[in-house]
């Protein structure tokens, strides 16, 4: 009696990513109430600069009270019907903020902006605009967590639109950078399956890698979509989180530098943006599509009526973003805090003998735990992940949930907790690694004892004891 959409299981809620969340929700860490609970390190949420926003609200009470600068109520004006184009004041403030993040190297036309209820809505709306059911988008791996087979982009892009995804496989051998070879191989793979490629979707900076795309990679992408006559979606929701060099380069800057802004190529380049990460406001559901194609803008604007942002939210944020002194301070201080917390995570893991991919952005680290696997397989990765969740008490995201083609990588978030909680997490990891080392040592000793018990029968006693002691000392070193 229900639709196929209701009865199918293609949303990916049974993935390792979501299962980790379920375990956390059953037993969440609390410093006082549940100090042995699971620490949430699978949530890419920025809580490091929330005090700056709260301070602004305390100093500017009128917007939240629905009053203008003359202290007159505008509640009725905001509560009554607003069309789906959005409040002009907010859209103007948002495009200026997007330019500010990019160092004002490019400007954005407010007429090319479509407001959506978060980046998820923006990505799905673009799929409806650019692809028919069965058409393909290519996405570099690894990408946003989800399932061994499905991920967030599969859920966001495929579940209702019917679009398909073919991965662009990237490797740790070059720090997971996009190559011309990988692009061509993904395109050929789609062709072998008789699938029509409509475009490429990238996240810049990358989630889960925490790295911004290089100018070389961006040029490769522009060249590729030009050659294949396809679209490019650049998801830039982490653009304001770049805390160290190289600095963030938007796809818009590449189009401008190559004099492509007023060409057909530019019409096939689209940007997704959100205030969930840069401003730490995921609950406000602020997303946007920026496109140079007026047909896409027109269709996406009409579709946005199914997921509007409240007028009250738009009004409040237009006031915050219009305060240029505040936004300048916020962006600078937020980057400083992210860098500090990132270094704390990386240095803490390094002392334990765990390295991270060198990164410069985001709210997470891409952590290499390949040396801790019982076997170099995805089964070994899930085995390790379960131990970290259930025994160590940390919810992190296994690389397989991000479509990583190499087992042993994990996404670990650091910006959604206090410094004290992160320190506790590092202590738990240290204890876990020490226990593995101890178990490995005991296993090795047992193997030596077994082997040498056989050797002792054929060697003089003093020779056997000297040989055995040397082997034990070598293991301890």
Secondary structure elements and pairings:
Elements: H1 4-7, H2 16-26, E1 39-40, H3 50-59, H4 61-64, H5 75-79, H6 88-101, E2 113-116, H7 119-130, E3 136-140, H8 152-158, E4 164-168, H9 180-192, E5 197-203, H10 215-228, E6 231-235, H11 251-257, H12 264-267, E7 269-274, E8 287-291, H13 294-303, H14 311-322, H15 324-352, E9 355-356, E10 364-368, H16 378-392, E11 394-395, E12 397-398, E13 409-413, H17 419-455, H18 461-476
Parallel strand pairs: 1-11, 3-4, 3-5, 5-6, 6-7
Antiparallel strand pairs: 2-8, 7-8, 9-10, 10-13, 12-13
Description of the molecule:
With 477 residues, the protein is an alpha/beta fold. It is 47% helix and 12% strand. The chain has helices at 4-7, 16-26, 50-59, 61-64, 75-79, 88-101, 119-130, 152-158, 180-192, 215-228, 251-257, 264-267, 294-303, 311-322, 324-352, 378-392, 419-455, 461-476; strands at 39-40, 113-116, 136-140, 164-168, 197-203, 231-235, 269-274, 287-291, 355-356, 364-368, 394-395, 397-398, 409-413. It has a seven-stranded mixed β-sheet with strand order 2-8-7-6-5-3-4, with helices on both faces. Strands 9-10-13-12 form a four-stranded antiparallel β-sheet. A two-stranded parallel ribbon has the order 1-11. A hairpin with a 7-residue loop joins strand 9 and strand 10. Helix 7 crosses helix 13. The chain is globular. The relative contact order is 0.15.
């Amino acid at each position: 009696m229900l639709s196929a959409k209701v009865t199918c299981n293609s949303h990916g809620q049974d993935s390792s990513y979501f299962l980790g969340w379920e375990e956390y929700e059953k037993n969440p860490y609390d410093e006082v109430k549940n100090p042995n609970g699971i620490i949430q390190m699978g949530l890419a949420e920025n809580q490091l600069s929330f005090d700056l926003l709260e301070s602004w609200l305390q100093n500017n009470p009128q917007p939240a009270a629905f009053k203008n600068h003359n202290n007159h109520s505008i509640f009725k004006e905001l509560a009554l019907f607003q069309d789906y184009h959005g409040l002009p004041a907010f859209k103007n403030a948002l495009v200026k903020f997007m330019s500010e993040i990019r160092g004002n190297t490019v400007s954005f036309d407010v007429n090319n902006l479509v407001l959506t209820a978060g980046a998820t809505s923006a990505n799905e709306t673009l799929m409806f605009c650019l692809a028919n059911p069965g058409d393909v988008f290519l996405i570099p791996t690894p990408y946003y967590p989800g399932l061994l087979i499905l991920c967030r982009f599969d859920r966001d892009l495929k579940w209702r639109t019917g679009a398909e995804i073919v991965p662009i496989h990237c490797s740790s051998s070059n720090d997971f950078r996009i190559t011309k070879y990988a692009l061509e191989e993904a395109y050929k793979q789609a062709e072998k399956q008789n699938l029509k490629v409509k475009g490429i979707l990238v996240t810049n900076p990358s989630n889960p890698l925490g790295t911004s795309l290089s100018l070389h990679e961006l040029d490769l992408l522009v060249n590729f979509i030009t050659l294949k006559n396809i679209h490019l979606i650049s998801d830039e929701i982490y653009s304001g989180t770049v805390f160290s060099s190289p600095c963030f380069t938007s796809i818009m800057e590449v189009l401008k530098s190559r004099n492509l802004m007023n060409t057909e190529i530019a019409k096939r380049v689209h940007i997704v943006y959100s205030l969930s990460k840069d401003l730490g406001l995921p609950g406000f559901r602020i997303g946007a599509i920026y496109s140079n194609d007026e047909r896409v803008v027109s269709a996406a604007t009409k579709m946005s009526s199914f997921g509007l942002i409240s007028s009250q939210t738009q009004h409040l944020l237009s006031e915050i973003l219009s305060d240029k002194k505040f936004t300048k301070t916020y962006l600078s201080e937020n980057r400083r805090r992210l860098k500090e917390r990132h270094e704390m995570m990386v240095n803490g893991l390094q002392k334990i003998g765990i390295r991270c991919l060198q990164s410069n952005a985001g709210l997470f680290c891409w952590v290499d735990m390949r040396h801790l696997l019982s076997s170099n397989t995805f089964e070994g990765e899930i085995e390790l992940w379960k131990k970290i969740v259930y025994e160590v008490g940390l919810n992190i995201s296994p690389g397989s949930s991000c479509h990583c083609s190499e087992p042993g990588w994990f996404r670990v978030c650091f910006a959604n907790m206090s410094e004290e909680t992160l320190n506790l997490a590092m202590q738990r990891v240290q204890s876990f690694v020490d226990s593995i080392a101890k178990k490995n040592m005991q296993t090795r000793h047992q193997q030596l004892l077994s082997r040498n018990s056989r050797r002792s029968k054929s060697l003089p006693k003093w020779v056997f004891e000297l040989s055995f002691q040397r082997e034990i000392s070598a293991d301890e070193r």
